[in-house]
Amino acid sequence: AKQAGRNCWHFYEAFMLQDTYEKMMLTNGLRRALEREELFLHYQPQFTMTGDIVGFEALLRWNSAEFGLVSPDRFIPLAEQSGLILPIGKWVLQEACRFARRLADMEKENVHIAVNISPRQLIADDFVDTVCDTIKKAGIKPGQIEFEITESALIESMEDSAIKLEELRHMGVTLALDDFGTGYSSLTYLMSLPVGTLKIDKSFMDKITDGREQLQLVGSIINLGHTLGLVIVAEGVETENQLELLLKIGCDHIQGYVFSQPIPEEEAITFIFPRII
Ligand code: C2E
Ligand code: CA
Ligand code: CA
Ligand code: CA
């Protein structure tokens, strides 16, 4: 038994080392990803319940020469731990603003671009200045950009974050609370921050077809959000069935595979101007 235990330990240890090694390799690769132009954005459309596009969420992709396509769920945490999310996040914002500029040139400045912001970025001293500069340089209206923040970002430094977000809101940037319902969801956050949009996490969508209670729970979140004057986005909507239920309980916007996966910029453009193709 002892022998087996030891083998188990060795296996576990080897597994840990393997994981640590892989993380190190990926982080090193990520360090060069920007200059090697291995990063790019995909855009996932967000729709009203009647099928109009209201915006796109910018989602980062990494096509590494060494590792191939790496999932954001794998490399974003490494970018955060290493601090690389700071230069990468700046690049994401620049790219998103460039696309927003393109949309404005096509008289589609009412279609916003949603950009995910990491806690590390929000905490950085130069965050508000960087955002201000980037928006100005791109020549877009701040209202074309929406930031998506998760609750964990806010827990880390609530007062500091609130001040910064307030400044950005004052500029005209809008704010969405991402992955709502997964963390320490608290009314305090919702009421003390200049949030205009609430994104209900995909995990709820997976359950609303299971039964009445789950559906009522999401319905309550929607009602609560509406009471606070928020726009409600359901994310990760995959089926017509889910769509119908969300329409019934008063959801405002939909983002999910039922309409479109995240797509390249050129494809996103044809989504807005379907008559051109
Ligand atoms: P998120 O912000 O919650 O983004 C939504 C994720 O759900 C995306 O995964 C999207 O592709 C996926 N999704 C959308 N609709 C559906 C659906 O109907 N079904 C399923 N199964 N999935 C759906 P993705 O692109 O893999 O991104 C994962 C996470 O990585 C994001 O979660 C976000 O937290 C992070 N991320 C992505 N891009 C950035 C970025 O530019 N900056 C930062 N800080 N984080 C990013
Ligand atoms: Ca998001
Ligand atoms: Ca989300
Ligand atoms: Ca998520």
Identify the strand order in the major beta sheet.
1-2-4-5-6-7-8-9
Ligands, ions, cofactors = ligand C2E, calcium ion
Q: Give the helix level as a range of percent.
A: 40-55%
Uncertain spans, ≥5 residues at pLDDT below 50? none
Protein name: Diguanylate cyclase
Main location: membrane
Domain EAL: 23-276
Subcellular location: Cell membrane
Q: What does this 3D model show about the protein?
A:
This protein has helices at residues 2-33, 72-82, 85-105, 119-123, 127-138, 151-156, 158-171, 187-192, 202-205, 212-227, 240-248, 265-272, and strands spanning 39-48, 53-64, 68-70, 112-116, 145-150, 174-180, 197-200, 231-235, 253-255. The protein has 277 residues and is an alpha/beta fold. The mean pLDDT is 92. Strands 1-2-4-5-6-7-8-9 form an eight-stranded mixed beta barrel, surrounded by five helices. The protein has twelve helices and nine strands. Helix 3 runs parallel beside helix 5 (127-138) and helix 5 (127-138) packs parallel to helix 7 (158-171). Strand 1 and strand 2 (53-64) form a beta hairpin. 52% of the residues lie in helices and 20% in strands. The chain is globular. The termini are far apart. Bound molecules: ligand C2E and calcium ion (3 copies). Ligand C2E binds next to strand 2, helix 2 and strand 6.
What is the topological layout?
Layout: H1 2-33, E1 39-48, E2 53-64, E3 68-70, H2 72-82, H3 85-105, E4 112-116, H4 119-123, H5 127-138, E5 145-150, H6 151-156, H7 158-171, E6 174-180, H8 187-192, E7 197-200, H9 202-205, H10 212-227, E8 231-235, H11 240-248, E9 253-255, H12 265-272
Helix pairs in contact: 1-2, 3-5, 5-7
The protein binds ligand C2E and calcium ion (3 copies).
One calcium ion (CA) is lined by residues 178-179, 199, 235.
Organism: Anaerosporomusa subterranea
Protein name: Diguanylate cyclase
Domain EAL: 23-276
